[in-house]
Amino acid sequence: MSEQPLNPSELQEEENNLIAQRKEKLDEVRKQGNAFPNDFRRDHYCGDLQKQFADDTKEALAEKKFPVKVAGRIMLNRGAFMVIQDMTGRLQVYVDRKALPAETLEAIKTWDLGDIIGAEGYMARSGKGDLYVHLEKVQLLTKSLRPLPDKHHGLTDTEQRYRQRYVDLIVNDQARDTFRVRSQVIAHIRRFLAERRFLEVETPMLQTLAGGAAAKPFETHHNALDLPMFLRIAPELFLKRLVVGGFERVFEINRNFRNEGVSTRHNPEFTMLEFYQAYADYEDNMDLTEELFRELAQAVLGTTDVPYQGKVFHFGQAFQRLSVYDSILKYTDVTAEQLADIEQARAIAKKAGAKVLGYEGLGKLQVMIFEELVEHQLEQPTFITRYPFEVSPLARRNDQDPSVTDRFELFIGGREIANAYSELNDAQDQAERFMAQVAEKDAGDDEAMHYDADFIRALEYGMPPTAGEGIGIDRLVMLLTDSPSIRDVILFPHMRPEH
Predict the structure, then answer these.
(1) Total number of domains in the chain
(2) pLDDT of 87-114, one tens digit each?
(3) Do residues 424 and 467 touch, judged by C-beta distance below 8 A?
(4) Which of 49, 281, 284, 483 lies in disulfide reach of 478, CB 3.0 to 4.6 Å?
């Protein structure tokens, strides 16, 4: 008969017993001296040694007796061989019972999976062809009091993986790889922009006015100044102040906060790249974005064909470019006549599921229709352009058609990845649009912007023609790591309290 799996209470009891046993072992170590030494210094990493000696034969290694000091967590114990893991990978260490002192051998018998050890010896290869360190000295550096998840009961619960990311990273190679890629992506973006003379800056996260995007902010209070304040929803208005000041190419990679729902696509705290370049327009930004995304895919994946959830997105091909208006005509059966009539457009938006409040203009209704009926169909990289000015309070109007703006959003896999536009640098026009936003806020739109008098004053000093863009780092990393949820690419995503 097959063994019956343990129920949750039995599993908890078993874990409690193991923890108690490990605490007893730690007590014994304490009696012998320092239980948590910090005098071991490694000189090599496991993954580096695997690469360095990949082609060395057993005989060549025996002749070299290359000395190494490595450290890591015990992940497997096969008796004579233990497998340790550090930040670069795994490596075997060999317990030579004929050569090691008796007290060391006795200590090793008490070690558990998860314990962290420092090992000193020389490189060798087994008869099966596996590299290992032939131990000459070894010591316990940290006793692990909690057992690691085993193969049968491992971190199979997704919520537990997010809550206990520290355990997920220990036992899950894919999780570690995802966050290595995230680090590579951010480092590459910094290099890419620095090579093009962009200056990296930092702007306030605590702001007296929430601006730069249409979103509901988190509210807080500054006690010393007795001021209501907001966690920033975007760094945009401060970055454009810097362009006014003469920093003609600036960027920031940092956190934004939006008081919205939590889903596979949204986390209330997220990482954004925003950059601004003077003497450029939104079409220049489209070209720059295509170039950046191609380079990123090639650098991280080694190809411009990006696999994602059973699909492949082709970053090597020219990205499609369509206006909001034309995309509705292309991807739905809505007619031009319906889009031009406010009553028909309102009815279509309501039927599609949009939250129509009644005060929306025709342009905003068209965007609502786009968001409900078109957005999810934009699989391959697509720039959606010419957004109505009602929904683009910071963007420059188009010279030929003032009802729309010189703006784009980039969609890949049905998700918005970037938002950009030729910046509005007419102070009087900007002031009027802020007033319109205030009216919408008063009408019940809690995502509408405040009137920012200081930003208007900055524009009155004169801002050169400028193009700006924001790229969601989390969603970009989701694409490049084939991750279905934004929580998979944020080390510590927001969750409800555990208890």
Answers:
(1) 2
(2) 999 999 999 999 999 999 999 999 999 9
(3) no
(4) 483
What number is the average pLDDT over the span 15-25? 95
Q: pTM of the prediction?
A: 0.90
Per-residue pLDDT, 107: 95
Which residues span the domain enclosing 256?
Answer: 171-332+374-489
CA dist., res. 232 & res. 210, Å (int): 6
Examine residue 447 and state whether it is found in any structural domain, yes or no: yes
* Statement to judge: residues 19 and 135 lie in one domain: yes
Least confident of 42-51, 143-152, 167-176, 382-391: 143-152
C-alpha angle 312-317-323 in degrees, rounded to nearest 5: 95
Amino acid identity for residue 157 in this structure: D
Q: Tell me, rounded to whole angstroms, the distance of Cα 240 from its chain centroid.
A: 25
Q: Does residue 355 fall inside a structural domain?
A: no
Nearest to 113 by CA among 86, 71, 146, 136: 146
Q: What is the C-alpha to C-alpha distance for residues 397 and 388, in angstroms, rounded to an integer?
A: 9
> Residue 444, by phi and psi: left (phi above 0), alpha (psi -120 to 50) or beta?
left
* pLDDT-derived band at 1, boundaries 50, 70, 90: very low
Please give the full DSSP string across 195-264, using - where no structure is assigned: TTTPEE----SEESS--SSSSPPPEEEETTTTEEEEE-S-SHHHHHHHHHTT--EEEEEEEEE-----SS
Using DSSP's 3-state secondary structure scheme, residue 141 falls into strand
The residue written with tokens 């018998």 in the block is: 109
pLDDT over 60 (residue 2): no
